[in-house]
Amino acid sequence: MKHPLDDSSVESFFIPGAKVYERYFDCPLDYQNSNTSSRIKVFVRHLVPPEKTIDCMKTMPFILYLQGGPGFECALPSNGSSGWIKVAFEKGYQVLLMDQRGTGLSCQISAESLSSQFKTDEEKAEYLSHFRADNIVRDCETIREQLTAGRSREEDRRIHLIGQSFGGFCITTYLSLFPKSVAKAYITGGVPPLVDTPDSVYRALYPRILSRNKTYYKKFPRDIERVRQIHRYLSTKTVTLPNGGTLSPRRFLQLGLFFGVSGGFDRIHTLVQSAHDDLERLGRISYRTLHHIQNTQDWDTNVLYAVLHEAIYCQNGQASGWAAERVLHEAPFDSLFEWRLDHLKEDQPIYFTGETIYPFMFDDYSELRPLKNVANLLAERSWQGRLYDAKVLNALENVEVAASIYYDDM
């Protein structure tokens, strides 16, 4: 059987500082029934220093990057001569940038793609159940086995990993399922809590979001009144976004997602200021501002980010059950994050929410609307098996793992 690295049909090209090979791997949709399962294509960009030959690639170690999400693809880097890729090259690595299953060029999932493949919501939900971290890392393992074929020493066949945000969750799953396949792992901003449901995650998260709101309003105190005026307008008008979505009060408050991002306060302030200025001058929010607000929210373009967001925590037969929404209705969060106009006190600041998923989104986001019932089915699903195995993780040997956490992450 021909080695994948010898396949001359693979498309390749150069960017500054790197040669890029665009590889596709054939993987089973369902690894539990791999012999009878339908197949999917998983896309990987393979980057090497320009001078490296195929023979060199057959001996060089691989470092695989796992993107954040869930539901986001890897972008083609502008060059290989800066950032972490440059460092990886200097340390002798070749780099793999994988579009995780269901993203980018790896059988990307959208409401449109699901409708073209399946007739019922139950079929769609069953299909989507195969796109969590356990199967993502099984794809990684398939790719590792193929690319390191022919290497005689076990240590030369082991892979090195770097994972951002949800990519760190995937690394933890990889270490749980295939601990002997990994040589080193680097996690940035994504250490999973090893729970069975997300409830405790949100009970810890909402106080953090509250704190970030208070810091935001301390920096921009005049935004307290600006947000009130915008909220009042959105509560009494139906505002349609350029792509047909609805800018409801709750959707507007989801801009708080950026409280955990560098420069996020300033970005939100700019949008608040623009919307408020529009209302003062025009009596409505302008197309330009609506366009900018719409483009800050990725759930229309990356639907997996919404439909599987809470499922990344679930294991051992547990369901998510719209955990973020349920916990939001617990005291004291129900009053602190009040958004209903007729329930707000006159002097009460209106607080933004964070990286949380709610049922209302499947009414307000145009590309999520067709998936409303699918999302409900997935929220009710009892997720079997383990994504994270604490016993295996505690017993790890000969694997170096390092992690960095963002101070203001939410």
UniProtKB/TrEMBL annotation:
Ranges in coiled-coil conformation: none
MF annotations from Gene Ontology: peptidase activity
Keyword Hydrolase among record annotations: yes
Limits of the AB hydrolase-1 domain: 62-212
Superkingdom, taxonomy of origin: Eukaryota
Record's signal peptide: none
GO biological process: proteolysis
Record keywords, A-Z: Hydrolase
UniProt-listed SUPFAM superfamilies: alpha/beta-Hydrolases (SSF53474)
Gene3D superfamilies in UniProt: alpha/beta hydrolase
Record Pfam families: Abhydrolase_1 (PF00561)
Keyword Hydrolase: yes
Similarity comment: Belongs to the peptidase S33 family.
Protein name: Alpha/beta-hydrolase
